[in-house]
Amino acid sequence: MRITLDPGHGQFGNPGVLPGYYEGTRVYMLAQLLKRELECYEDTEVIITRKRIEDNPSLANRGGEAAKNGSVLFISLHSNAASNPAAHGVSVFRSIKRPDSEHLGRLLGAAVVDTMKKHTDITYLRGVMTRTESFDGQIQDYYGVIRSSVKSESVRYSYIIEHGFHTNLTECGYMFSDEALQQIAEAEAEVIAAYFNLKKKDGQMCDYIEYVVQPGDTLTSIARKYGTTWRVLAEYNKLQNPDLIIDGQIIKIPLSTEINTGDVVRIKEDKDTYYPGGNPFPKWVKDYDYVVGKTADSRGEPVYRGGDKCVLLGSKINRKTGAHGSSINSWASMEYIEKIRAEKI
Q1: 329 and 235: one domain?
Q2: Quick one: pLDDT band at residue 204, thresholds 50, 70, 90?
Q3: How far is CA 63 from CA 68, 78, 84, 117, 133, in A?
Q4: What is the tens place of the pLDDT at every residue in 42-82?
Q5: Which of 43, 70, 178, 337 could be a cystine partner for 265, CB 3.0 to 4.6 Å?
Q6: Are residues 10 and 76 in the same domain?
Q7: How far is the C-alpha of 135 from the C-alpha of 142, rounded, in Å?
Q8: Same domain, 187 and 220
Q9: Do 274 and 251 fall into the same domain?
């Protein structure tokens, strides 16, 4: 899997409120650390847009590098700025052309927040957002790095991550620490590895991250932060009483259960329809696994049936022989299917 990291700005771009802090320098260091963490996984290649710290490519060339080299994932690394010194928090921007990238963006944002807040006590997720503009009557991504990256279909995930505000004394102080950058690199790499089912070079699969329960947390609030449901977390963590979690408890977040186009899925044993309120399906349907054909309609919008978000089941796979057959082409609720194995990246 190929990933492009883009440390924003140039070496002395955007000074912070602490003397000696420059956004362009700090995110360049973060990119080096994140590259090192990601390349601990098998078949993973990381390309950085700034080959040297003094480099400052154009916005088009930054995103264009990912489009040119066939990357699946593009991340432009930044810290934010505002005229109000009290402004704080983490923001993630995604491409308007990649609606399916919302979930990974939320996971990355939540991981950065969890890492920073342990030390700042103020950092929160401001949102996973898109920003657009109109050009020649067409709506396009506002940010040039995102816009140029998604010119290639290979770039399925394109983000700008703002790692707090360097105009905020507390968050600038955290990002000024080399140890802090290492913590963020580890957190982001862990999310990416889990999401794409990457295998550590020592053979260990990374299929979840750990969350430490904080005062006031509920299983529902934790699930909402990571874009899942309390039922998924309760089942994955084998919680006898989902309403009873305590401060300091470790909750595992099963990131690899996210379903994408090309994944192989199976209809759950206790389901007899494709979605809530649907007609009963023939019994032979459960004799097969299925390749996910689509996760959205032709306009990129989610498809709902019976109130549930659905995916399109494509070709059948014989469970005994593994042979692929004809396509079933039926929309099925994400709650009614389970992921058997991930797509090949």
Answers
A1: no
A2: low
A3: 9, 14, 30, 30, 17
A4: 999 999 999 988 899 999 999 999 999 999 999 999 999 99
A5: 337
A6: yes
A7: 10
A8: no
A9: no
